[in-house]
Amino acid sequence: HVQLVESGGGSVQAGGSLRLSCTHSAYKYDSYCMAWFRQAPGKEREGVASLYVGGGSPYYVDSVKGRFTISRDNAKNTLYLQMNGLKPEDTAMYYCAADGVGFIARSYNYWGQGTQVTVS
């Protein structure tokens, strides 16, 4: 069982930046997908960025390309989401997920508790 703990959310003005972190316990596999999702009130959960641990290019939803960067520190078992140029439409609860496929939320086996991002 993998435990995921997100941090780094908060309130920021439009154009500002935040960095989300997701620290997780060790996983039995060397290669698996991790992703950031977000969910705004009344909307479906949306994949934002994904990264294949063990190699591969990151993927981003079109609305965040050029503004968000997903990365991972293997030594710290921590996944990051650097968010620059934040817009009010980025306001949502952000979730870290592990062991799934791309942006298919129902495919992920492990989820964090979420961290709120509010852009005004």
Can you walk through the features of this model?
The chain is an all-beta fold and 120 residues long. The chain has strands at 4-7, 10-12, 18-24, 32-39, 46-53, 59-60, 68-73, 78-83, 92-98, 110-111, 115-119. It contains no helices and eleven strands. The strands form two sheets. Strands 2, 4, 5, 6, 9, 10 and 11 form a seven-stranded mixed beta sheet that branches. It is globular, with a radius of gyration of 13 Å.
DSSP helical segment count: 0
Beta-strand content bin = over 45%
Describe the sheet with the most strands. 7 strands, mixed
Order of helices and strands: EEEEEEEEEEE
Q: What percent of the residues sit in helical stretches (DSSP H or I)? A: under 10%
Oligomer: single chain
Question: How many angstroms separate the termini?
Answer: 37 Å
Mean model confidence by pLDDT: 94
Task: Supply Rg.
Answer: 13 Å
Number of E-state strands = 11
Identify low-pLDDT runs: none
Structural class: mainly beta
Shape: globular
Topology:
Layout: E1 4-7, E2 10-12, E3 18-24, E4 32-39, E5 46-53, E6 59-60, E7 68-73, E8 78-83, E9 92-98, E10 110-111, E11 115-119
Parallel strand pairs: 2-11
Antiparallel strand pairs: 1-3, 3-8, 4-5, 4-9, 5-6, 7-8, 9-10, 9-11
